[in-house]
Protein: Abi family protein
Organism: Nitrincola tapanii
Amino acid sequence: MSYSRPWLSYEQQLEQLKDRGMQVSDDAAALTSLEQFGYYRLSAYWYPFRHKEFDEAGRLSHITDSFIPNTELRDAVKLYLFDKKLRLLLLDALERIEIALRVDIAHLLGRLDTFAHTKPDKLHKSFANKTKGGGKPTAFNAWTRKRIHVEARSKEDFVEHYKAKHGTDLPIWVAVETWDFGALSQLFAMMKVKHQTQIAMQYGVADWEAFQSWLRSLNYLRNICAHHSRLWNRNIVDQPSLPESGALEWLDMLRGRNLSDEELISRPFLLMAICRHMVLQLNSSSRWHLRVKEHLEEFPAVASDYKIGFEAMGAPDGWDAWW
């Protein structure tokens, strides 16, 4: 298949939106938005305001290019700016969590062996030897290749200093500072169950399997935020698991309200709630969650006849009373 859509100037982009029913009260401001943020990026935020067509059974059959009446371009811009601030708030929390996990993992494994991260016998045999198909490298071998590449390309002063004095093999408490959240979560997933449980318990989570899935999902969330991708109203692909009822009081408060567990884990709100939990475990006096709540309560009102709210992120009824 060939791509046939032509290049459009900003003025042509604006005219196309108007032709499709988009309301624009200030052409100059609209053009500035298209120039600053881009048509394609903003399209993710005006997507909910496009007309939908349904079949005889009431199932969605087609989403047209035309807009629901009274949809304004600034509706999409306001949603984009709301989403941008939300991503920045979450990056703040994710940085705290990532740094703390670096310390936790390096401290625990480093006590076993200075180079525990290079020795699969210090990890869970079955987890480290897991493969994704015939002929594929083991989880440990795949992770090791990535680790070596990341450590080799690091230009951090502390890494250069260590290599100059001691050689290329970095002890875990040095190596861990070169890894990203993904590498951390992958190493955690290969650790022995007793070690995973020990770290999970530091965060008030007794279910090591659920905690492992949390780290994987938080890495997914971090990638969304770091790459400036849309978070609001997003379907979560890498979904976290839920501990059994009774394991976490706050989670029990959110479950079974107006959302099923399947709906809860598929939307961004639960990942935000997990960040809240972990930040407060790290610092019980943190006010990060209050800044997030204040921002969520300022969800922008839109002019469009199609009304949307923060609930599209998967927030259960009464979330604000708990948060």
The CA atoms of residues 56 and 97 lie 49 Å apart. Residues 10-78 form one domain.
